[in-house]
Amino acid sequence: MRRSAVWLTGVLAFGTQAGERSVWPEGEGREIAERACSQCHDPVVITASRLSAGQWSARVDAMLAKGAKVGDDEIDPLIEYLATHFGPASPR
Ligand code: HEC
Asked: What are the pocket residues of ligand 1 if the criterion is a CB atom closer than 6 Å to any ligand atom?
């Protein structure tokens, strides 16, 4: 009788985590921004911006016009998130 050895190959996916560090700061609205804005942008386009709440509001309107997928009830939390983390005077 032939015995075949069973080898545990254990292919563990090491090394995939390093690149997944999120650049989005924690906070309410993060998930919305990450999903809706990453569709077209590298996050740095947003995280390097320094805009007031009013400017973010206008910017988000412009992005909605371009096709950003943000639900009606997600717009306010999104603008608040952006204005909180990427406001004119916020430190990096
Ligand atoms: C459908 C593609 C698309 C999506 C989704 C999108 N954008 Fe944009 N965005 C663009 C394009 C195209 C431009 C360049 C033209 C312009 O400035 O209007 C732009 C420009 C910008 C700029 C100005 C960049 C600069 O260099 O001045 C900011 C800031 C920005 N987007 C933020 C956002 C945010 C925040 C979101 C998520 C709500 C978002 N975008 C989602 C297409 C998109």
From this structure: 33, 36-37, 39-41, 45-46, 49, 59-60, 62-63, 66-68, 70, 82
Closest CA to 25 of 55, 46, 54: 46
pTM of the model: 0.81
Identify the burial level of 36 via C-beta atoms within 10 angstroms of its C-beta, where 0-12 means exposed, 13-18 middle and 19 or more buried.
Answer: buried
Residue 5 pLDDT: 52
| CATH numbers and ranges of domains, the chain | 26-85 (1.10.760.10)
Residue with tokens 């916020």: 90
Contact (CB, 8 A) for 31 and 74: no
pLDDT tens digits along 26-58: 999 999 999 999 999 999 999 999 999 999 999
